[in-house]
Amino acid sequence: MTVQYIEYKGIKFPPGYNSVQSLCFAENKFEVRDDDIFNVTYPKSGTVWMTEILSLILRGGDPTWNQNLLNSLRAPWFSTQLGLETAHHCPSPRLLTCHLPVQIFPKAFFTSKAKVVYTSRDPRDIVVSYYYFTKMCTTYEDPKSFNQFLESFLSGDVPHGSWFDHLKGWMELEGRYDIFFISYEELKQNLRGSVERLCRFLGKELDDAAVTSVVENASFEAMRRNRMCNSTMLPKELMDQEKGTFLRKGICGDWKNHFTVAQSEYFDRVYQEKIQGRKGIFPWEQTRQDNI
Ligand code: A3P
Predict the structure, then answer these.
(1) 84-95: string of b/e by CB count within 10 Å (b at 16+)?
(2) Which of 88, 89, 99, 160 is the catalytic position?
(3) Nearest 10 degrees: Cα torsion 62, 66, 68, 74
(4) In terms of CB atoms within 10 Å, which of 63, 65, 74, 113 comes out highest?
(5) Is it the case that residue 292 has pLDDT exceeding 50?
(6) pTM higher than 0.85, yes or no?
(7) CA 86, chain centre distance (Å)
(8) How many CB atoms lie within 10 A of CB 148?
(9) Region class of 162: left (phi > 0), else alpha (psi between -120 and 50), else beta
């Protein structure tokens, strides 16, 4: 099926909930409150996971909210028309979600005291996850093949734009605004420690039992069971559950089951070219070095 993507500032967005007007409003007119908490990601980096973690932290570990209200109502996608309405009516402190690159992010954030949690992920696992997601989500074009999708991803010709630009754009703000950077890999490796770090960033004091509850309720298994976040409540016209599962595998390194040697080498070449000169090292680069 051919999908007519929305285009805003040179970046493609899936149609349906997004529109040029809603994106323009998000960028220029969205009113940011000082106690807003933004959950920002590139697609397939663990957005929905972070929404569960943050919702649980805000409720002191009590899972009632997560188990009774859809994630899109707890942490609205404010750059969509529907999400904007929800965001307007959310009591403070609000949780807000988006995949926006920094150049389209609400201008008002930069003069506010609001916080951002930015979750990154091994781009090779993102490609794989994104590939399966586009097959089940009807507002994305069906990929012709994994190889074609990989090429499009590396050239930035996918909805939400280039992963490289997204990551670099946000990383450039490090130390200048109240932004907490964390990776999917860190969450996987040490969810409890990650939750404790997030609590400190958010100024929330949770006792051991409350942290345990966050960890348990944000586990892959618990989330798969929870209809408020496992995407099964979405209409078939949007998400065809017969074509896949949103909470698919939830692991690090699934790319190894999908990339050929040639694809992996090609990926590494493009990665080096586009990411070179950056200080610091991401968890997935650590593994890369260990393998050498
Ligand atoms: P996979 O497709 O690799 O399984 P997003 O929410 O940004 O769209 O990201 C979706 C990815 O995060 C999916 O990856 C999904 O399974 C994974 N995910 C969501 N919740 C998770 C959890 N609790 N533990 C591990 N992975 C999780």
Answers:
(1) bebbeebeebbb
(2) 99
(3) 120
(4) 74
(5) no
(6) yes
(7) 19
(8) 11
(9) beta
